[in-house]
């Protein structure tokens, strides 16, 4: 099969590309960074350098493909995250229609249907293709973005984006705390990008007649349990994940000069996690858990932490 993978060489797209190439597929990887061209070729894939904001580029790239994996990279430089997601989703939908793509797998988030500003899945409703929506939980790799703050280099008042789940956190290196308007003993499903890549690879080879939704997770635990696993791996077993109120979180984001619309969206995303609704959706769909556990990831995290 000829498969187009968007997302450059990101946490999901790189292992997905490696897996698909190993399976013998002809893979084209879309990247906006010309510097990634050589690295894409090393993987045995064909680079397509361009922007997902360019519908003509996407259409030309998709036109001969048997299947497309479509993801929208988050941009927190955008003051209105919801508007940005809708525009990019519409670009994808238009290009996929014009290219007459038959099989499409779209990356979403496990709480997307619960957060009005984040849910752009409906944009693909009338797509004349076999469609699967992927709803992965909170990424393990989000913790990589916490390193400087865990080490205490970035202290009070600095906020950290934690990927597509909508998870944001404030970490204070002096006290060893993760903080957000969900946390503490809230139960969360975490997921390895490798497990997501495996799931996407499986879906790309299927051809369901109706639109399907697939949740993906690797391990469920409380936020404090996750913090302890990561903290123990880096010599800080006391690491905790403190729970803020929505008002405290919103006030902190505004103090950090996050645009008001974006701040409200981020608080809404986390509030859904704290409410337990996202977890209930996950359980209702009964997905099979992936192979990579947080303790496995913590070993990789510790190596990067010690070498950083």
Automatic annotation (TrEMBL):
SUPFAM superfamilies listed in its UniProt record: NAD(P)-binding Rossmann-fold domains (SSF51735)
Signal peptide: none
Record-annotated NAD(P)-binding domain positions: 7-124
Transmembrane segments: none
PANTHER family according to UniProt: PRESTALK A DIFFERENTIATION PROTEIN A, PTHR43162
Name of the featured protein: NAD(P)H-binding protein
Organism: Spirosoma arboris
